[in-house]
C-alpha cells in the first residue's frame, strides 16, 4: 500500500534559525525573584521613610535655628551696647573730673590774683589818701595866704604874687580825678579847676570853658606868660581850658583817664589864650 502523501507545508525562511525569544522562567524562579524584589523594595521604602523622617527634622531645626540665632545676636548686641555705654560713661566722668580739677585750679589762680589786686589797690588807696591829706594842708595854707592878699589888693588888678598863688594851688591838685561837673575838692573838670584856682587871688571866672575863653585880654600863643588861660576850640565856644605854667607846659584837668596833670603844648597845641592876671 502506498503511504498516503503528507502535504508539504512550506517552511519559513527563518525556520532554520534558532528562536531569539528567552525561555520562559519557571513559576518558582519568578516567585523567588518577586520575593527578592519585594524585599528590596520594602527595604528601599523603609529606608526612604527613614530618610524622609530624618530629612524632616532639619526642617524643624531650620525654622527654630534663626530664632535661637536672633536671640543670641540680640543678647550679644545688647551686651556690646551696655559695654559701649559703660565706656562712654567712664569717659564722660573722666572729662567731668578733668573739668572740675581745671576749674579748681583756675579758681585758686583767680583767688590769688584777686588777693594780690586787692592788696595793690589798698596800697594805692593808702598813698592817695596820704597825698590828699598833704594837698588839703597845702590848700588850707594857700587859702589863708590868698585871703590876706585879697584884703590889700584889688580883685581887678591882683598883686604880682598872685600868679605864683594860682600856680601853687593848681600844682596842689595834681593827681586829683577828672569828673565832668565836679568842682573839688578832690575831683574837677577843666573849667571848675580854673575857676577855683583864680578865685584864690580874687578873680571870679565864669563856670564853663566857653565863657572863660572870652574873659580878660586875648594874647597870642607866641607871647604867653605864666598864668595865662589857654583854651581849645573857637573863642566863645571852647570845649577845654588849662593854665600855662611856663617852659611850653600847661596844667589842666585833662580827662577821666589822666585826671589833673601837667602836659606839653607841643603834644596838644591850644587854639588861643586870654590873660586875667
Can you walk me through this structure?
By secondary structure, the protein is of the alpha+beta class. It folds into 2 domains: 47-137; 153-275, endopeptidase fold (from Nostoc punctiforme). 54% of the residues lie in helices and 12% in strands. The chain contains 4 helices and 8 strands; from the N terminus they run ααββααββββββ. The strands form 2 sheets. Strands 3-8-4-5-6-7 form a 6-stranded antiparallel β-sheet. A two-stranded parallel ribbon has the order 1-2. The radius of gyration is 65 Å and the shape is elongated.
Q: How far apart are the first and last residues' alpha carbons, in Å?
A: 212 Å
Radius of gyration: 65 Å
Query: What's the name of the CATH homologous superfamily of the largest domain?
Result: endopeptidase domain like (from Nostoc punctiforme)
What percent of residues adopt helix (DSSP H or I)? 40-55%
Write the layout of secondary structure elements.
Blueprint: H1 27-150, H2 162-172, E1 177-178, E2 187-188, H3 190-199, H4 209-212, E3 217-219, E4 229-232, E5 240-246, E6 249-253, E7 260-264, E8 272-275
Parallel strand pairs: 1-2
Antiparallel strand pairs: 3-8, 4-5, 4-8, 5-6, 6-7
Helix pairs in contact: 1-2, 2-3
What's a concise summary of this model?
The chain contains 4 helices and 8 strands; from the N terminus they run ααββααββββββ. The chain has 277 residues and is an alpha+beta fold.
List its salient traits.
4 helices; 277 residues; 6-stranded antiparallel beta sheet; 54% helix; elongated; endopeptidase fold (from Nostoc punctiforme); alpha+beta; two-stranded parallel sheet
Amino acid at each position: 500500500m502506498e503511504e498516503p502523501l503528507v502535504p508539504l507545508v512550506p517552511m519559513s525562511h527563518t525556520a532554520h534559525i534558532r528562536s531569539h525569544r528567552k525561555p520562559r522562567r519557571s513559576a518558582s524562579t519568578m516567585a523567588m525573584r518577586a520575593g527578592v524584589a519585594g524585599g528590596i523594595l520594602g527595604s528601599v521604602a523603609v529606608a526612604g521613610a527613614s530618610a524622609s523622617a530624618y530629612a524632616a527634622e532639619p526642617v524643624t531645626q531650620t525654622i527654630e535655628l534663626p530664632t535661637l540665632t536672633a536671640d543670641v545676636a540680640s543678647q550679644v548686641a545688647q551686651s556690646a551696647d551696655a559695654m559701649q555705654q559703660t565706656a562712654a560713661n567712664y569717659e564722660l566722668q573722666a572729662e567731668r573730673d578733668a573739668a572740675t580739677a581745671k576749674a579748681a585750679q583756675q579758681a585758686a589762680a583767680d583767688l590769688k590774683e584777686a588777693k594780690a589786686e586787692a592788696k595793690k589797690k589798698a596800697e594805692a588807696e593808702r598813698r592817695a589818701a596820704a597825698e590828699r591829706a598833704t594837698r588839703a594842708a597845702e590848700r588850707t595854707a594857700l587859702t589863708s595866704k590868698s585871703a590876706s592878699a585879697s584884703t590889700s589888693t584889688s580883685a581887678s588888678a591882683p598883686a604880682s604874687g598872685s600868679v605864683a598863688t594860682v600856680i601853687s594851688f593848681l600844682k596842689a591838685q595834681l593827681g586829683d580825678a577828672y569828673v565832668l561837673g565836679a568842682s573839688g575838692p578832690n575831683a574837677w573838670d577843666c573849667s571848675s579847676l580854673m575857676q577855683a584856682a583864680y578865685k584864690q587871688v580874687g578873680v571870679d571866672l565864669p563856670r564853663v570853658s566857653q565863657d572863660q575863653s572870652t574873659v580878660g585880654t586875648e594874647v597870642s600863643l607866641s607871647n604867653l606868660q605864666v598864668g595865662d588861660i589857654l583854651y581849645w576850640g573857637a573863642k566863645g565856644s571852647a570845649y577845654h581850658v588849662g593854665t600855662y605854667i611856663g617852659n611850653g607846659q600847661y596844667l589842666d584837668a585833662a580827662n577821666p583817664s589822666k585826671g589833673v596833670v601837667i602836659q606839653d603844648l607841643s603834644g596838644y597845641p591850644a587854639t588861643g589864650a586870654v590873660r586875667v592876671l
